[in-house]
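tmp note - TonB-dependent receptor
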Amino acid sequence: MSVSKSLYLAGFRCSALALSVAFSAQASAAGATPEVVNVIGQGAQLEQALQDQRMSDSVESVVHADAIGQLPDDNAAEALQRVPGVSVERDQGEGRFVRVRGLGADLNSVTINGTLVPAPEDDRRAVALDVLPSELVQSLSVVKTLTPDMDANSLGGTVEVESLSGFDHPDTFYSLSSEASYNDNTGKTSPKVSGAISNRFSVGQGIDNFAVAAALSWEDRTFGSDNVETGGAWDFDDASGARLEELEERRYDISRKRLGAGLNFDFRPDEDTDLYLRTLYSRYKDTETRQANVIEFADAQLPGERGDAEGTREVKDRSETQEIKSFVLGGERRIGDWTLSSQYGYSEASEDSPLHIPGSKFVGNSDFSDAGYDSSREPNVKISDAVYQAGNFTLDEIEREKQLTTDTEQNIRIDLTRDYYWQDLASQVKFGTKFSTRTKDNDLEVWAYEDLTNAGFTIDQLNLANFVNGNGKLGPEIDAGALEQLIAGLNPADFYDAEQSRINDFSIEENINAAYIMNTVDIDDLRIIAGLRYEGTRLKAKGTGINDGSFEAVNERNDYHHWLPGLHAIYQLNDSSQLRAAWTNTVVRPTFGQLFPGFVIDGDEAEFGNPQLDVLESSNFDLGIEHYMGKAGAVSAFVFYKNIENFVYSADLAGTGEYAAFAEAKTYANGDKADVYGLELAYSQQFEWLPAPWNGLLLSANGTFTRSDADIEQFNPDTGNMTSRSISLPGQSDTSGNLTLGWENDRMSLRVATNYQSDYLDEVGNVLDKRYDTHVDDQFFVDISAHYFLTKQLQVFVEAQNITDESYYAYTGDRSFNAQYEEYGPTYKVGLSLTHF
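out:
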């Protein structure tokens, strides 16, 4: 008997954390072929989820494609929010970035088919998973304890995305889905179409040894949001109370077009060889028009007060396209007790923003009277009607820019595995190496059209009345197209902003060489995995700085090495329960925005990135117990602790070192250490033993409770000494959780899914004064879905997202003081789905 088979029969299972969503996977199969749902559907899906998790030596949570389809989730990020320990950062109400165990998205990593996914944004490492339509995904997993054969580049966890394979289904498989969604905020209806197909073929002397799978998804979503924000413009030093200096009303109209495609090939020429080619392409076009009404008070005001104010009308109009391309070629060959596997991966992410208007400003011809607001949490502007009359404003400036960011990653990986017996104990040794190179490039071009009267324009031409296209919620809307026509005859070279254009251009190259060795041994009911990983990193950063008007080339290098031991243990208490423990060590590189090589020095003020930042190093400890309770029942509890060194935060170095004579020196610095500890609970159950119709009930609940403590410091000019204070890590929510209640029979499937995440620190505003920190308030979302099978293969479904109209609220220091308040409205869907397998 082979060691791999003996290990499997020993009954070792992966973490049951994912069982809180696994029941959704097997329940969703109830919607595939209702006549056989009780015989094949639920059991098959449960076995699939358990098989994936049994073969994992890590604490891992998994969501399968069918489970994703049963919940009203538009993209990979929203599907993952149902997993224990996972919450999402939202943009315009859509799930975008994933946080694991309360840790910010930049502290985690994402792979597609085993190769790292780079980030389209110029300043981040975090991958915006809303660019991946859920239809292209066969499975999503979150690995929370890394074994030495995995990249050590995450603190919370690694999100692994697997696309569809032709061997996932025994015969011909296809699915086709179409839907229409309605956004209550805009009153717009949006279409979506998706489909997938796979089949097996016989090649040469083999039978069904060649598989092909393809998937396609297209969506054109139109929606919007209403916003009021202060940007933290509060003065907390007045004895009478916090006074507001300015506020802004905004209206967003947004169109997001998603196109995703995947084409995969698998070939098994003999029983010992597997070859594969995985490709994935995702295109995400985001078009946004933002109208804004900015009120700046002559004197900072309390709620209810009235006074004079300056008024400004602004418009932003831009379109950006994000693309992700992934190409993975690999194979595996078994030779006796040895297994050789190798893989080449290439991935590219880009964000292209062609020439657009990032901002334009119309200033009031005079101050407006009787200006104020009536709430510090959701400021409602009170001002004279003159601020909504177009003729009272004159065009002041127009900005135009274009930007292209590319992030490419290539890697080659080779692994060797040997099964053997050590003193009659089933064992396995595995070792390998990986070489990867990553390059992030950013190119920004900026033009600032100012002093337009000097360009020959008259006041009548620059009056807002000439550039309106309707009467919106904030008064007359500015027509961005008319603004571009206005300046079309001007010579762009006369308005080129060389400083902004050159300072924001950079290239950062990151090469990582890695090697590892690990050994697994089974001692009766105990499995022990011990290993060591080495990662050596070479960083090169090129950019431009400006020192009191003079440009200077910047070339920075930073090399470092890490030895990362790891130890995992799994103890089988009985057939239904097991204990897990893990000690792992990981490293996370700072974001590209923090490593930014450019700088600006203007007199005694400076702002710059820091390519010499130390990497974040973390020692991680996990301990948990899992208990399985029949067909779809499981309960689990895990505690975890992370000791993080060199975490990064925004800092002002003025008054210290070479910046002793500066009044301001904004950059990024390494903190000493941070501690993260938490508890993760999960429960799921299918109540099949209850009498009908209650035997169709399904319940899933999970919660993660996290705390973090980090110290930051800054020079205090009032005392002449360094002042420190404790904070939570930015992006870390103390509490996150999910509750899903479902019911189904042979033809109908119903789901109510709720998701909660508590407030978190978003940004340190002033190291010396926590009152200026920005926090994001807690959020509670409720989504529902209903699927009904008209035939064995055809189902109709209706879904509703955010039915409670949950808003996004960020505050400054205290919940009473607005930083940003935004509403999106509910979204309703109806559609048809055809599936055959």
